[in-house]
Design a protein that fits this description.
- The longest helix has 30 residues.
- The protein folds into three domains: about 90 residues, no CATH class; about 325 residues, Rossmann fold (3-Layer(aba) Sandwich), CATH 3.40.50; about 260 residues, Rossmann fold (3-Layer(aba) Sandwich).
- Strands 1, 4, 7, 8, 11, 12, 13, 14, 18 and 19 form a ten-stranded mixed sheet that branches. The chain has a six-stranded parallel sheet with strand order 22-21-20-23-24-25, sandwiched between helices.
- Helix content is about 50%, strand content about 15%.
- It has about 800 residues and is of the alpha/beta class.
- Helix 13 packs antiparallel against helix 14.
- It is built from 35 helices and 25 strands.
- The chain is globular.
Length: about 800
Amino acid sequence: MAEYTKAQLTELIIGKLHRNFGRDVEDATPNHMFKACALVLRDIMSGHQMNTSNQVWEGQERQVHYLSLEFLMGRSLEKNAYNLGILDTLKEALEGLGFSASDLFEIEPDAGLGNGGLGRLAACYLDSMTTLEIPATGYSICYELGIFKQKIVDGKQVEQADNWLGLGDAWLIPKMDETEEVRFGGKIVDHWDDKGHNHPEHVGYTTVLAIPRDMEIAGYKTNHTNVLRLWDAKSPVPVDMSLYSRGEYLKAVEQQAMAEVIAKVLYPDDNHYEGKSLRLKQQYFFVSATVQSIVRKHRAQYGTLRNFHQKHVIQINDTHPTLVIPELMRILLDVEGYSWDEAWNIVTHTVAYTNHTVLAEALERWPQGLIETLLPRIWQILKEIAARYQRQLEQHFGGDMNKVSKMAIIWNGEVRMANLCICACYAVNGVSALHSEILKKDVFHDAYTMHPEQFKNVTNGIDHRRWLSQINPKLDALVRECTGGDDYLIHPDAILGLEKYKNDKAVLERMEAIKKENKRRFASYLARESGVVLNTDAIFDVQVKRLHEYKRQLLNVLHIVHLYNQLRDNPNMEFTPQTFLFGAKAAPGYHVAKRIIQLINSLSAQINADPICKDKLQVVFLENYRVSLAEKLMPASELSEQISTAGKEASGTGNMKFMMNGALTIGTLDGANVEMHQKLGDENIFLFGLTADQVTSLKASGYHPQDYYHQNGDLKRVIDQISAGFADKESYADLMDRLLRSAGGSPADDYMLLADFDSYRQAHCRALETYADRQRWNQMSLINVARSGIFAADRSIRDYARDIWHVPTRE
């Protein structure tokens, strides 16, 4: 690692201000100063990256290509400085120049190129791949507008554009000379030669240029540097001059606008045909550009693609990049002239697939006509793959068309992306032990019986350097003291050394003092930002994640209304003060999720205005939940709500961040909660609710939520109250009806809130009893931190490297 002094960094920053912005320090705004710092760090990382690239080339090393339509990177200035080992020096240099480092870190926009856990996982994995010195590149789209900024207006979510590039583009290095062409539309003309080989020609297509904008990724305490390649979309014809000269100005730039819309917005709403078409264009645009780029570099080095699968692994993060399979086939068949069998052998030894969901609606399917029109050559290749696979299936299952129809790639006019992955990928992994078992036993059971060796598990992990050391410096200092140094930052299992102090009164008191200080710090931040005053003497009970019915924010609401009723009935009862914090964005087209946000805000207004609840019960919805807000909230959290219906959450990573920061979990045996429970035992986690098997069997035998409603007076009262609405006179009968009556093909209470309500309430009672015993609570908190090392992304990446990618890692 290169060392930089305060004087050297100061000189570099002043140089950037002069050369790039024509400013002296005295004239520089905070924005200028931020960009100057970013450019200095970018230069350092670029030098490292060029050396890394040369080593990989010369060593002919196997490379990992991580394809994800989402990378939720958050902010980069503090993170990069931390990884480069110059954070303290940078702070000193900035203070010396008359700028506040913390204010400067705060003005950086989040690079919100993702919706939630999937994109944040990809960001954590890039950090770990680089730190473990794996030659790796991430690929995605350079969305001009990331995930929307959420405003709450009259209690409702309103989406606003999130233009992160104003300052964020300081991190991006355009590589115009590595531009690729991506083709849409048109038709295929077959040309048969005298040997009976077809040479298909694509004619009448529209071209979109894919221009790489590379973001350097620094590893921790290593000069190894990887890249996140973000593809920007441009038209090869910026303006049609013939139309322009005739005065048809809008038409003249139409082609440019149609091209650029591909990289305009993260994940357009695909509830309508135009949305579906754009989403498919985004997926093909980024995989086509990516594969062409990898192939071009490989051919330049080796002169052949016959060894392609020995030198590359392409990991696809969920089904969004699945079109990489037919696109690689297209290049091998049409450009390289390989036979089908040779091309298929290369593809099926190159591509591996991570599945992130068991929800049927999230397993992507595309209308056949859309692919046929938009990607005619890809459609031909898909048809051939599907036909060959179907013949295999019919042979294997003795013509059992029930099984064949479930596993077919093309069926009833739809192309099923997950089935294409199962057919073509050499490894398929789930993201927690329970999830991987569900894939084998249920979602892909028949495929598992055909090729059990194809199925793996890699439990998700988080970047513990960011999510503990960087965001919780006092806890980091305590861990270092107790474990004898900073070894845990490279070997996360070393954090287990903290457990030796579980009976040490002084250490437990420090744990408590750190948590109190973090709560006060978060409360003062929130008061500054939104005017909301938190009761820091209350337990901070937190549920932050995407708003989805299966994550059951609504169950949390039912319980809070029950607590409110208890207080109203008996204002002088003994009551542990509780502050419930929610943070969530709902997908723009997901009406029910948006209604739940509105309900939380209605409830918040009701409770926070009621004098009976003062200093006892508080509900706050945190507007615009994002990575940088999570970094402030996680260290302050005490009770972590991980309450999805068992069998629905693939893994979760928020649960790991809370655990690592000493919050205790109230949760179902779902996703990675199962492995957390295995590590913690019954005594260090608050479990409740049905297990995945019990959910399945109760549904099979007939689940009747109305029985719970009629038999439980407390629950009936809560549901009736929410139906009627609160002081704002907004009725939520529509949400409550979903719990009691089936509608539109969905069964009543599909996510079994009513079945789990009583168990959930009892778990809360146990948690509050424990909270009253400060020594016991602090001890559990310490044990959670000490046993969290297994959930570091470094461990996940070592698992991928050993079991799937077959690449070495830094020791």
